[in-house]
Design goal:
Helix content of chain A: 40-55%
Radius of gyration of chain B: 22 Å
Oligomer: heterodimer
Number of helices of chain B: 17
Order of helices and strands of chain A: HHHHHHHHHHEEHHHH
Strand content of chain B: under 5%
Number of helices of chain A: 14
Largest sheet of chain B: 2 strands, antiparallel
Strand order of the largest sheet of chain B: 1-2
Largest interface: A-B, 88 and 98 residues
Shape of chain B: globular
Strand content of chain A: under 5%
C-alpha cells in the first residue's frame, strides 16, 4: 500500500507539500504570532528621513556583506563592542541587517562611539584612518545629493513619521551625510557602557609615573589605537579629535589631572560629564576600558605627559624643522 | 527511442546557459577574492565588493545552479516518464526568459538594487519574473510526470517534485515585501521575524537548490553512467522523507546567539543534528552502489566525479551540523570558516555532480562520445585541488580569526584589536585567490570539453544528413 504513493504523482506532491509545511509552520509562521518575536525597546526611535536614506545607502552598497549588526552575548564580544543585541532594538528594521560575515567589525554599537568627522574621513578613505584595512572607498557618496521625493516615498512605504520641512531639508544633504546619520543611529536604544559609579577617580595617580619604559610602551599603544583620530603625535585632527598637547582640554583652557585622562580613555565620551568638560558637540571618544589593559591606558598617559613636556620646551614650529614630515614611523596594523 | 523524440535542444540550451552564467559567476568570484586583500581592486562603485558579492552568489546559485536544474531535470523527467515534455514551446520560452531574467538580475545587482536578503537579493519586479519562470517549470514537470508512460516514479522524480514545491513555498513567503518604487522594497517582516523568515528561506534554498535536485541527478546519473543499480531502494525512501521533513526546521541555526529566542535556536540545532541521518542515507547508498564494482573508478571516467561529489556531500552534512552546536558556532560564526564550508558544498558537491551529469548528457544529445576523457580527468583534478585548497585555507583562518576575537589579557581586557585579527587573514586570502584560479582553470577545461563535444556532434550530424535531426521543438 505504501508503495502506491510512488505511482500517484498528485498524491505524492500533496504529501510532500504537507511534509515541508510542518516545520515551516512551527519554526517560521507560528513565531510571527508571538509578541516576543516583535518587541519594541523603550527609547527606540524610528528612523528620521535622513537616517532611512542612510540605511538605504547601507543596503545598496552591500555593507552587510562584510559587517554584522548583532552583538552576541559572549564575554569577549560584549567587551569589544558593547552590550549584546536585544530583540526590541530591531522593531523598525525591514529587513534585518544582522549580516552573516564579519570581514569588518560589528556595527550594532557603532552609533555615538566616534564623532561624525571620523566617519566622514573613514568612509571617504578608510586606509587614511586604518592603513591596513581592506574596506573600499566610498568618497563618491559625498558627491551624491539626496532626492527628497524618493526618500519621502520610502518613508511613506514604511509609514514612518516625517514632516515637510524634514523632507525639504534633505535637498541640501548628501548620501554621505545620510550614511553617517544612520551609523550614529545604530544602537542608540541600548545604553552604552557608562563608567561604573565611583569609577571616575580624578585624584588617582599614574602608577607608572614617567619611567622611560612606560613612555615607550605608551607611545606604542598610542600608535596602535589613538592616531586615527588624534594624529601620530597627539596634535589632534580638526572636527574629529582634540589636540592632546596644548593647554586647552575639551574646549576649556587649563589641564586636568591624570585621573581625568584615565576616566576619559577608559569610559570614552560618557565620562566627559564627570570631568565637567564639553568638548566636540558630535564628539564621541570610544571607551577603551576592557579593549586594552588598564596598564596600557596609564602608559598612554605617561606618554602624553612626556609629549606635553617636550612641546613646552620645543614649540611645534621648531620641531617641524627638526623632523621633516613623514619621518615618523607609521603604525604597524 | 524511435517513436518519440525528446526536447534535447531545450535541455542543451539550459546547459549552455548554465555554463555561461557559471563562468561569469566564477570570474566575479575571483575578482571579489582579490578585493578581499586589495581594496584598490574595487574599481568603481558598481564594481565594489558589496555589490559584486551578490552577483557572485546569485550568478552561481540561480545562473549555474537553477539553469542546470531546469535543463537536467527536464532530461531526467523525460527519461523517467518515457515521453517528451508536454509543453515543449513553453520550455523554450522559459529558456529565453531565464536568460533575460539572469541578465537583468546581474545588472540590477550591479546598480545596487537589492532587498539585502541573502540569496533573495533581487528586487520585486525580478521576483515576479522568477515566480513566472518557476510556474512554467512546474507546469511542464508535473504535466510530463502525470502523463508519463512508466507507472513507477523513480526516486529522482521524488526529489524533483519536492524541489518544485519547496522552492515555490520558500520563495513566495520570503520575498513578500512592501514596494516603495519600481526598484525598491522593504521586507514584509521586521526585526527578529525578518531574520527568522530569511534564514528559514536561506537555509532551505541550500536544501532545495543545492541538495534535493542534485540528489535527483545523483540517483539518476550515477547508475546510468556506471551501469550499477542503486544499492537500496528502501534506504532512498527513508532518506527522502526524513530529509524533506527535517530540512524546514533548521533555518534558525544561522541565528545562534542572536536576539532570536533560544527555544527556536535549540529546536533548529536538534533538527540539524538529526539531518545527518537522511544525508548519510544517500551517502551510504552512493558508496554501496559503486561498492558493487569499485573498478568503475578506473574504467568509467565519470564515476570519480560522483564518488567524490557524494563524499563532499557527506563531509558537508557532518560539518554543517557540527557548526550548529553553540560551542562551535561561537568560535567560527561570522569568520571565514563559513565561506570555506559553503564552498565545499558548492565546489565539491554541486559542481562535481552537475558537471558529471552534463558530461553524461551532452554527448548523448548528439549521439556521440565526450570530446576528451583526458581533459575531463584534468578538469576533475583541478577542481578537486582548487576546492580543497580553498576550503582548508578558509577553515584555518576562520579558526584563527574566531580565536583572536576571544583572547583576553590577565585583567580581562581584549588582547587583539579587530585590525590585529584582520591583517592575519591576508596570507590566507591570497591563497584563496590562488585556489580560485586553479578551480576556474578546471571549470574552463570543462567548458572547452563540452563545446568541443557539441562541435563534434554537429559535424557528425552534418555528415549524416539527410538523416532526421534529433531535435524537437
Amino acid at each position: 500500500m505504501a508503495g502506491e504513493i510512488y505511482k500517484k504523482p498528485i498524491s505524492f506532491a500533496l504529501l510532500a507539500t504537507v511534509t515541508v509545511l510542518v516545520g515551516s509552520i512551527v519554526t517560521m509562521a507560528y513565531p510571527m504570532l508571538r509578541p516576543d518575536f516583535h518587541p519594541r525597546l523603550e527609547g527606540l526611535r524610528p528612523f528620521t528621513a535622513l537616517q532611512l536614506a542612510g540605511r538605504d545607502v547601507y543596503q545598496r552598497e552591500g555593507c552587510m556583506g562584510c559587517h554584522t549588526q548583532t552583538v552576541r552575548p559572549l564575554r569577549s564580544e560584549v567587551v569589544r563592542y558593547g552590550d549584546y543585541s536585544k530583540a526590541g532594538e530591531f522593531y523598525y528594521d525591514r529587513p534585518f541587517l544582522w549580516g552573516s560575515k564579519r570581514t569588518g567589525p560589528d556595527l550594532a554599537r557603532e552609533g555615538g562611539k566616534r564623532p561624525d568627522g571620523w566617519h566622514l574621513k573613514h568612509y571617504a578613505d578608510p586606509q587614511s584612518v586604518t592603513p591596513r584595512s581592506n574596506m573600499p572607498r566610498y568618497a563618491f557618496l559625498a558627491e551624491a545629493r539626496l532626492d527628497p521625493e524618493e526618500v519621502a516615498s520610502h518613508m511613506r512605504a514604511l509609514r514612518l513619521p516625517h514632516g515637510p520641512e524634514e523632507i525639504a531639508a534633505l535637498a541640501a544633504r548628501t548620501e554621505m551625510d545620510a550614511l553617517v546619520a544612520y551609523t550614529q543611529w545604530l544602537g542608540h536604544a541600548v545604553q552604552r557602557r557608562q563608567p561604573a559609579a565611583g569609577a571616575v577617580d580624578l585624584a588617582a595617580a599614574n602608577p607608572l609615573g614617567d619611567s622611560p619604559h612606560a613612555i615607550a610602551r605608551g607611545n606604542r599603544v598610542f600608535l596602535d589605537n589613538c592616531t586615527a583620530c588624534h594624529g601620530d603625535e597627539g596634535h589632534g585632527v580638526p572636527d574629529v579629535a582634540p589636540n592632546l598637547l596644548d593647554d586647552v582640554f575639551l574646549g576649556t583652557k587649563g589641564d586636568v589631572p591624570d585621573g581625568a585622562y584615565f576616566a576619559l580613555i577608559s569610559g570614552g565620551s560618557d565620562a566627559k560629564a564627570a570631568i565637567g568638560r564639553k568638548g566636540l558637540e558630535s564628539g564621541g571618544m570610544q571607551a577603551y576600558g576592557g579593549q586594552i589593559p588598564n596598564d596600557d591606558i596609564w602608559a598612554v598617559i605617561s606618554w602624553i605627559r612626556a609629549q606635553q613636556a617636550h612641546e613646552r620646551k620645543e614649540p611645534p614650529a621648531m620641531e617641524k624643522a627638526e623632523h621633516p614630515p613623514g619621518a615618523t614611523p607609521g603604525r604597524t596594523p | 527511442m524511435g517513436e518519440y523524440r525528446y526536447d534535447h535542444r531545450t535541455v542543451q540550451g539550459f546547459i549552455l546557459s548554465a555554463i555561461f552564467w557559471g563562468v561569469v559567476g566564477i570570474l566575479v568570484g575571483l575578482l571579489i577574492s582579490i578585493q578581499m586583500w586589495a581594496p584598490a581592486a574595487n574599481l568603481a562603485p558598481w564594481l565594489a565588493f558589496g555589490r559584486l558579492r551578490p552577483v557572485h552568489t546569485n550568478g552561481l546559485a540561480f545562473g549555474l545552479g537553477v539553469g542546470a536544474i531546469f535543463g537536467l531535470s527536464y532530461w531526467v523527467v523525460m527519461r523517467l516518464a518515457r515521453r517528451p515534455l508536454v509543453f515543449p514551446r513553453l520550455a523554450r520560452v522559459q529558456l529565453w526568459l531565464f536568460n533575460l531574467g539572469i541578465a537583468a538580475a546581474a545588472v540590477s545587482l550591479l546598480a545596487g538594487k537589492t532587498q539585502s536578503l541573502e540569496y533573495a537579493e533581487l528586487e520585486w519586479p525580478l521576483d515576479v519574473a522568477i515566480v513566472v519562470l518557476w510556474v512554467m517549470f512546474a507546469v511542464n514537470v508535473f504535466a510530463t510526470i502525470v502523463k508519463r508512460r512508466e507507472e513507477q516514479m523513480y526516486v529522482s522524480l521524488w526529489y524533483v517534485i519536492a524541489t518544485v514545491i519547496a522552492v515555490a513555498v520558500l520563495y513566495l513567503v520570503n520575498n513578500a515585501s512592501i514596494p516603495a518604487g519600481w526598484w525598491k522594497s522593504y521586507h514584509a517582516y521586521a526585526g527578529v521575524n525578518s531574520a527568522n523568515v530569511e534564514w528559514w528561506y536561506g537555509h532551505n534554498a541550500v536544501g532545495f537548490v543545492f541538495t534535493t535536485p542534485i540528489l535527483a541527478f545523483f540517483y539518476y546519473f550515477l547508475p546510468k553512467a556506471t551501469g550499477l543499480p542503486i544499492f537500496s531502494h528502501r534506504l532512498s525512501i527513508v532518506s527522502f522523507w526524513s530529509l524533506v521533513f527535517a530540512y524546514l526546521w533548521t533555518g534558525a541555526h544561522h541565528l545562534i546567539y542572536t536576539p532570536l529566542p533560544d527555544w527556536l535556536q535549540t529546536l533548529a540545532i536538534i533538527f540539524t543534528i538529526f539531518l545527518i541521518a537522511p544525508s548519510w542515507g544517500s551517502v551510504v547508498n552512493g558508496y554501496y552502489t559503486v561498492g558493487a564494482d569499485w573498478s568503475k573508478m578506473r574504467s568509467q571516467y565519470l564515476t570519480k566525479f560522483f564518488v567524490l561529489g557524494i563524499t563532499f556531500y557527506g563531509l558537508q552534512t557532518v560539518q554543517g551540523p557540527t557548526q550548529a552546536l553553540r560551542t562551535v558556532s561561537q568560535l567560527i560564526h561570522y569568520t571565514d570558516w563559513v565561506p570555506g564550508h559553503v564552498h565545499m558544498g558548492t565546489m565539491g558537491w554541486v559542481t562535481m555532480i552537475v558537471t558529471a551529469s552534463m558530461y553524461y548528457v551532452v554527448p548523448r544529445i548528439w549521439g556521440t562520445e565526450i570530446y576528451s576523457e583526458r581533459i575531463a580527468n584534468l578538469h576533475f583534478w583541478l577542481v578537486l585541488v582548487g576546492q580543497l585548497l580553498f576550503s582548508i585555507t578558509m577553515w584555518i583562518t576562520g579558526i584563527q580569526q574566531g580565536a583572536l576575537w576571544k583572547v583576553t589579557n590577565a585583567d580581562g581586557s581584549l588582547k587583539y584589536s579587530f585590525m590585529d585579527g584582520l591583517v592575519k587573514n591576508y596570507p590566507y586570502w591570497h591563497t584563496r585567490t590562488l585556489a580560485g584560479i586553479i578551480f576556474a582553470a578546471g571549470m574552463l577545461l570543462f567548458v572547452y570539453n563540452v563545446l568541443k563535444t557539441i562541435q563534434k556532434g554537429k559535424a557528425l550530424e552534418a555528415s549524416q544528413r539527410p538523416a532526421p535531426a534529433p531535435a524537437a521543438a
